[in-house]
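Just scan my protein:

——
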Amino acid sequence: MGLWGFNDPIVEAVAFHHEPSKCGSCEFSPVTALHAAQFIIDSNKDNFNVEYEIPAAFDQKYLADTGVAERLLALQKLIPADKRQQA
């Protein structure tokens, strides 16, 4: 991606979005946004029911350290069940 002219934060977001703590920063950044977006996409599937905790597939510590974890759970609860996509 760097060869295509994308800047470092975007390259890092793509490279580390499954394991954002390996990026080395605990500040909100594009990698945080992409990791959180993956949670939102997954939580919008019928077979994904999260109410009180973020599944282990997501970097719970990173999301908590960046202050995103509680907001993600609140956002997930706002998605009506009838609007969830089929997995």
Remarks:
- Residues 2-83 form one domain.
- The chain is about 45% helix and 0% strand.
